[in-house]
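User: Can you write out an input/output pair for a complex, sequences first and structure second?

Assistant: Here is one pair. Inputs:
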Amino acid sequence: MRTQTSGKTDLHQRFATIVGDSNTISAASELRTYECDGLTGTRVTPALVVLPGTTEEVSQCVRLANELGMPIVARGSGTGLSGGAVPSPESLIIGLSRMNAILEVDLPNERIRVQPGVANLDVSRAIAPHGYYYAPDPSSQSVCSIGGNVAENSGGAHCLKYGFTVNHAMGATVVLADGTVVSIGGPLADSLGYNLMALIVGSEGMMAVVTEVWLRIIRLPQKTRTIFATFPSTDEAGAAVSAIIANGIIPAAIEMMDQLAIKAIVAATGVDWPLDVGAALLADMDGIAAEVDHTAEAAIASMKQAGAVDVRTPRDAAERALMWKGRKSAFAAVGRISPNYYVQDGVVPRKQIAAVLREIARLAAEAGLCVANVFHAGDGNLHPLLLYDARVPGEEERAEHVASEILRVCIRYGGSITGEHGVGLDKAPYMGELFNENDLETMSLVRCAFDPAGRLNPGKVFPTPRLCGDRPGPFVLSPLERLDIAGRG
Amino acid sequence: MFDSTNLLEPASLTEAAALMQEHRSAGTHLAFIGGGTHTIGQPASGDVLFSTRKLNRIIEYAPEDQTVTVEAGVTVAQLTEVLASCGQRLVLDVADPHRSTIGGAIASNAFGPRRLRFGSLKDLILGISLVRADGIEARAGGKVVKNVAGFDISKFVVGSHGTLALITSATLRVHPLPDVSEAIRVTQLSAGQVWDLVMAMREQQLEPTTIIAVGTTDGPGDYDVDVVFEGVRSGADAQANCLRNIAERRGWSMEELPSDRVLAADAEALSAGPLRVHCTTSPCEFAQSNERAIRPLMHTLTSPVVSTYPALGIFTVAGTPTPATTAELANCRKQIELRGGSLIVEAQPAPHDGAPMIEPWGTPPPSFQLMREIKARFDPNGRLASGRFVGGL
């Protein structure tokens, strides 16, 4: 089906008539920016990049790409960690960074309508003066885009209490694989018909290109208390997490860092955390002031009972901000103590955290590698960082091997291969270990309904390429439809 | 309408899958049913009822992980009892917990007033097992609270009304039981005052788990608003005091009431008559929706009740219809759809003299073509709850 295009210049010109010359990128040097996302080990140069400014331009680009037989990869800020935005050589990348307007702030209805290129943190910044915020807070929130968050169903530290993107994205305007613009879900509590937003969120760019999103926004809590506690090892820290949750407390966030992660964070940010401890927890309690005082004290008691070496609370907002900056810059901090690292994202049932951390340590030790752990302990979402030096022959392969084995450990303990970074290119091979062929086929039924030709972000999520084929049999009109009764209210 | 002598009622997941296979070969049209409390629209003639009521095992409960996996026919009451033994709960308010099943609640997107703080099943579901129309068993999601592996079929089937597949089991997130639950009723408010109260609580950063406004008569101030605060004693007390101050400053009268009365009052309101209509609107248009759409409809009903979740923009009207009701219902739907909302006729009395049933769903949404494509992929021969959902899906 693929049509041979008559050279790059011609290709450039055809898309430039839609989005403008300056928003069409075809020079090899400039295309390099788009050859990978946060999974920097996998790089493929796309055929062309366009930066549309409107939904209509996105639609026209999709139609033209279809005409030319080009696969389409939508891209936000390129911070994804699973290779979800990695193109194939013949791909058109639709970069949504120019579509970065906040279109409508609707405080009485507690919602906001934004374009996909808006940075996650800019949503909260826009509404903070009114006492509101947007809850999902990936560590990359100052740069990652809402469109990317929707594609990946991004979480963050505070999703333990407040949920993920899927719990906050209510509706969207999307461009379908054939260029049709359609509104999905909507700004109200429920929309009629199937819950299509549940499919759009987390679809990893394989169902549609999102060009507008309705997000739920949340009133700031009366009070937030932050607690930082250190422990002899991750065992005691894990026990503290379990005890707090068992006590009926749902912290807004509860993050764990092991010794190596603490060292890296201290070195990078200057936060005054002790270096001679085995693990630390950083937790937020938020909500009604009187309740927060109570739950914070109860959490501190649980931490001490579990063997905390030291428990402290920040003196002021600045110290609290520094603590969280420390946590959120952990990945970058580890990058400063190791030439390279491989970040893994797996989930295990909360009660298995300590056992799985021991398994991870064993796997890393066997491979002769160091591992730093910094993760969302409250929901069992592990982020082991495998440190290696790519200049040392064999180290990178060993790190990749350990990373794979960690996913298998997560599956064995009843967990998942990704909690928030997505499947993308990186984890597609493991989907077949988590799900069987029937499960995957069921997922592909949905994808085929949205994109029967498989043009949008092909090669992601599924372990092997899947063809949709024809629709399985003719669509049969329902009796109500035949009588023209249904849906004419 | 349906062949009740031919009720399918498998007693195990294996049997359920086998029956689905068998009836696929036979081309039988199936209508799934749980407790039968939220079945919207009539099964088509010839549909065979497929009941999940005997699929009633709790498969796995992990209190430490705050997750539970249950078969579809487990009732809300049955699950509530098991969870309570470990100090936990599934925050799912249904009118008849002894009949309502988890599978049915998922299929019908059932929810109650505590959705305000805890979300709906769309938020609480973590994983699902299905048997498709072609007899294939499949699952999606998992048993952990955080998981983005694969497309979210679990949340997608919430509210699909049995038109996509048989739901056989689900994993759900559960929450700790609160230490206390305090309720206050603010009485005799107008619709405008109801919204004023919602905004005043928001201004004070209160976090009520429930705000229900129930109205019956047609007076200017006929809404009684029940507000529930849950959590630890100090937090609930502080919030209740704050609410009292809000009401006192405005000269509104109040009553204290046991918090379980609030849910009971909501349930009673929902069963006030054979007609039940569920409207979703923009929350801030509460007073306008009330005046232009809800009250005119109530005028046509005998003994009408409206139960609303004002902060969510949800109105449920129940009562006994009169001859004027059908026409007014069309007007009510028009008013609500004009403002981007929807009106669902959840229950209606059997029509007299061969008159047609009122179409339950209203105008299909702009994404309807996509929904048809999905239905066609999952159920190509239209055998599952045929024609019963939006636009005849």
